[in-house]
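User: Second chain of the day. Same drill as before.
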Amino acid sequence: QVQLVESGGGLVQAGGSLRLSCVASRSIFSGKTMGWYRQPPGAQRPGAQRELVAAITGEGSTSYPDAVKGRFTISRDNAKNMVYLQMNDLRPEDTGVYYCNVPGILYKWGQGTQVTVSS
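Assistant: Same format as last time:
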């Protein structure tokens, strides 16, 4: 069964940190690039405007958009089928629902985890 389950979100003040976790089905995770996506508040429909904020290949190479570079760190534990997102120096614009998925394939979305950053 294809499954993605995110956790670790919460409410933090600007400048704070959070660590998100995602556990994926083995069939999804194995050897694939994994990504974290953010859906900002006010999106019109589920799935709309989700932006990729971090990605990690099966070999561990990472990539980030400029908006989060230096603040977010993605990592993975292949033995546990898990991917993590360490978010530091959080800003109000980081607020949103965070999801993990496989870029370019996009399996069924999990429930996501809410991150709210107050100013």
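The helical segments are 26-29.

User: Great, on to the next one.
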